[in-house]
Amino acid sequence: MKFSSFISASSALAVATAQQTAYGQCGGVNWTGATTCVSGYYCFYQNAYYSQCIPGTASTTAAATTSTQASSSTLSTVSTSKTSSSSTTSSAASSTTSAITSYAKTSGSVFTINGKTEYWMGTNAYYIGFLTNNADVDLIMSHLASTGLKVLRVWGFNDVTSTPSSGTVWFQSFVSGASPVINTGTDGLQRLDYVVQSAEAHGISLIINFVNNWTDYGGMAAYCTYYGISPVTGWYTSTAAQAQYQAYIAAVVARYKTSTAVFAWELANEPRCSGCDTSVITNWITTTSKYIKSLDSNHMVTIGDEGFGLTTGSDGSYPYTTGPGLNFTTNLAISTIDFGTYHLYPSSWGEVDTWGNGWITAHATAAAAIGKPVIMEEYGSLTHADEEPWQATVLSTETAGDLYWQYGDDLSTGETNDDGYAIYYGSTEYATIVTAHAAAMLAKAV
Ligand SMILES: *[C@@H]1O[C@H](CO)[C@@H](O)[C@H](O)[C@H]1NC(C)=O
Ligand SMILES: *[C@@H]1O[C@H](CO)[C@@H](O)[C@H](O)[C@H]1NC(C)=O
Ligand SMILES: *[C@@H]1O[C@H](CO)[C@@H](O)[C@H](O)[C@H]1NC(C)=O
């Protein structure tokens, strides 16, 4: 079931001489298919579970024969191909000098970014890695920088269940009857490469997320359909789904392991496991965060959860309960998690906007007790002015940073999508809710 009819047919003929097609799998634990690639491609070792045919020529020993770990020469192959692919593009971000010269790290209840320990504001532009025009990416980065926003959260996943036509960006496919494919091509992770490169040039730090709880851009459901996992909460404990999820993480981490523009790796967007014991998600966080740290000790790791399951400051309302399958304090205490995240959407949770102030205070208090920073990494009200009292609460509590949902701008393709929460660069409310608050955060004394 995991093997496509193409592979079965060719292995029946002669496995040893068959050549894998572009972007096809060519190695990994228990892989029995082709281990060499068609002309113009070579077998690139990503991790023990996955090698893939990517464009170019191997500068080292055939990747598929590398057994247990990515060598530094393999990694330098990645950065070389990254540099050469980006050097074919002309843009403001082609400078190789990074505006950020050190890795971001925690410093008590706050962070040190590029040598500066300060509070900051950021935002979300989940879509930036899916843009096909480099100038649009650079425009957003330059606007973030001139606004004084420090951290941008983006989707580092884009899972599809059928292979889109050329020109549509996707990062990983789960096509029934074929092996999962990690797309490192020009419509694939090379788009994320450009985001990282532009962030480096503009001094913006990135939170890069690996999978969605929701079905937008595939998510856990894409894995579950492919592997026959039902209900979807089985994703967290499925060996097959977790092996592929880790293969995907390894592929992304290998590309930016030495980039100082990466602020943190993030396990998932809004993971929930309704009806599950909280140990299910806690175990998954422990395993995955340890795995990422084993691949990359340079960068921080965080969860990407909404902050559910909190005794501190609880008013007994649903978000404070463990109903969605999470215990905020237990998860934040995991040693391989560097800082906490939570989101704030009172209207989606059956609460009024003023309820949000207690939510912010409760998380700040809980995180301080554990001794790690916490960020409000998504927040939004359809009445944008209601976000201002929340920002005042952020400033008066021990909250390291806040990232509003979501950044809007006017690109070559027109205005970015508005889900009702977008605040557009250059608008009147951008000045009051974004520019003014960004300045207030940076001005707050540490
Ligand atoms: C590889 O095959 C062995 C033997 O069938 C099995 O025990 C092991 O779980 C497989 N490994 C993976 C990663 O599928
Ligand atoms: C994502 O969250 C929703 C809402 O709780 C839930 O229905 C769905 O099952 C979640 N996904 C997974 C994989 O549990
Ligand atoms: C989270 O787990 C801790 C430790 O077991 C427990 O004290 C706390 O009450 C739990 N939180 C919730 C909201 O149940």
What is the element layout, followed by pairings?
Elements: H1 5-14, E1 19-20, E2 25-27, E3 36-37, E4 41-47, E5 50-55, H2 72-87, E6 105-107, E7 110-113, E8 116-118, E9 120-124, H3 134-147, E10 151-155, E11 159-160, E12 172-173, E13 181-182, H4 189-202, E14 205-209, H5 219-227, H6 239-256, E15 262-266, H7 278-295, E16 300-302, H8 328-332, E17 340-344, H9 356-370, E18 374-379, H10 387-396, E19 401-404, E20 407-408, E21 410-411, E22 414-415, E23 423-424, H11 428-443
Parallel strand pairs: 1-3, 9-10, 9-19, 10-14, 11-12, 14-15, 15-16, 17-18, 18-19, 20-23
Antiparallel strand pairs: 2-5, 4-5, 6-7, 7-8, 12-13, 21-22
Bound molecules: 2-acetamido-2-deoxy-beta-D-glucopyranose (NAG) (3 copies).
Which key features would you list for this structure?
446 residues, alpha/beta, TIM Barrel, 2 domains, eight-stranded parallel beta sheet, three-stranded antiparallel beta sheet, 23 strands, 33% helix, 18% strand, disordered N terminus, binds 2-acetamido-2-deoxy-beta-D-glucopyranose, hydrolase, Glyco_hydro_5
